[in-house]
Amino acid sequence: MSKISLIGAGQIGGTLAHLIGIKELVNEVVLFDVASGIAKGKALDIAQSSSVDGFNVKFSGTDDYKDIKGSDVIIITAGVPRKPGMTRMDLLKINAGVVKDVVGNIKKFADDAMIIPVTNPLDPMAQIAYKTSGFDRSRVFGMGGMLDLSRFKQFIHEATGYSRESTKALVIGEHGENMLPLTRFATVSGIPLPTLLPKEKLDEIFTATKGVAAEVIKLKGATVHAPGNAISAMIESVVQDKKQVIPVSTNLDGEYGQKDVSIGVPAVVGKNGVEKILE
Ligand code: A3D
């Protein structure tokens, strides 16, 4: 795979573009934004860093959708982020309009692409993107659970003191107030977490995982680095066909007893997008 377009060159779009460059995930990154100066400026700024780090990725910024033609993967980071005190659901109306508009243009200019929505509230936006695109559900899957998982694993690391690489875990359900960090299924090198930590500590980790985004937003206005990195990990699994098992917001068609809803479930992510949903 060679080309990725990021629709929305704001804080997450810019951070993600830089990470894609540093990790050399593809040959070309297009940053699209209705505010064309931002897209063009960020593309220039990131390109200026490439000779120091020595990565070979072409960056461009645009406000013309025709430039997304030929994209293999398109990430939607367009829309309004929440402010301190808001829930993700408070963004529903305004961002639904943005995502419909963006997906309409993806259909027009890049109808072979995979779509990874990131705009909040993530699960409804993933469902809207799926419905508006008419694409096979394997090609539309939102990023939310991967970020929740990276937070969950960080809290497990802090509580146990053991290496992050040794931690295997899963967060499913809504990317929001009702997410489910599965403490009972987490392990450290195969050793069940409930045998390593007391119940009170597990409850603390569960609550902290759900609440940490709001805490970051209260402290610095937005979550940026962890989301950008989580998206890049999903892209990596697609472009390198890693077939990692990742929680993604995908449309369910009977899995988990649910139909016609997009929600976070573990899925095998590879070059064909969501290749299998695991129950
Ligand atoms: P921000 O820095 O405001 O960037 C959003 C960009 O979208 C701005 O540059 C806008 O100009 C642009 N934009 C607005 N409308 C359109 C449009 N119709 N077409 C193209 N571009 C448009 O926000 P951000 O980067 O901090 O966050 C972007 C979105 O990601 C928000 O909805 C956040 O809530 C969401 N987000 C999701 C996660 C998840 O884990 C799912 C994490 C963090 C943020």
Shape: globular
Strands side by side in the biggest sheet: 3-2-1-4-5
Strand content: 15-25%
The secondary-structure element order is EHEHEEHEHHEEEEEHHEEE
Total DSSP E strands: 13
Bound compounds: 3-acetylpyridine adenine dinucleotide
Residue share in helix: 40-55%
> Given the structure, what is the number of helices?
7
Radius of gyration: 18 Å
Regarding quaternary structure, how should these chains be classified?
A: single chain
* pLDDT < 50 runs, ≥5 residues: none
On the 0 to 100 scale, the average pLDDT is 97
Category by helix and strand content: alpha/beta
Task: Report the sheet with the most strands, covering strand number, pairing sense and barrel closure.
Answer: 5 strands, parallel
Report, as a whole number of angstroms, the end-to-end distance. 29 Å
